[in-house]
């Protein structure tokens, strides 16, 4: 959001455009394309761009990718493959989820009225809430796994 839009929004919603100390930071997305370049350095979470662009959520992916990196390092010590290769294999599930989030965010933000209308339908909302509450990922929800 541009600063001008933020002031207009504040004026419209808060009846004041007096905003001070505005700071913003980009959310690190695009991790569905991340591939470690080094056998000795594995990035996780925001450092690997593993936040999702739909809502900006990244804690889940940060924890999961950190755990995956740790497992990849341990497995590489027991086998002849590098930690990088183990990690790339493990990241595929997260990266598939991030691709769905990327696609969903493009749809939602391109057609916000239609998307919000669909998401406000009780059966759709209840289904998504139930699935997320049970720890399912967007891939599992959309594929019905």
Provide the structure class.
Answer: mainly alpha
The helix content, as a percent range, equals 55-70%
Mean pLDDT rating: 87
Largest sheet: none
Global geometry: globular
Query: What is the element string, with H for helices and E for strands?
Result: HHHHHH
**Count of individual helical segments:** 6
Q: Could you tell me the radius of gyration in angstroms?
A: 19 Å
- Roughly how many Å apart are the termini? 36 Å
Q: Assess the beta-strand content as a share of residues.
A: under 5%
Secondary structure: elements and pairs:
Layout: H1 3-14, H2 59-78, H3 83-110, H4 112-119, H5 122-133, H6 138-143
Helix pairs in contact: 2-3, 3-4
Commentary on this structure:
- The chain is mostly helical and 145 residues long.
- It has 2 domains: 29-110, no CATH class; 112-145, no CATH class.
- It contains 6 helices and no strands.
- The radius of gyration is 19 Å and the shape is globular.
- The mean pLDDT is 87.
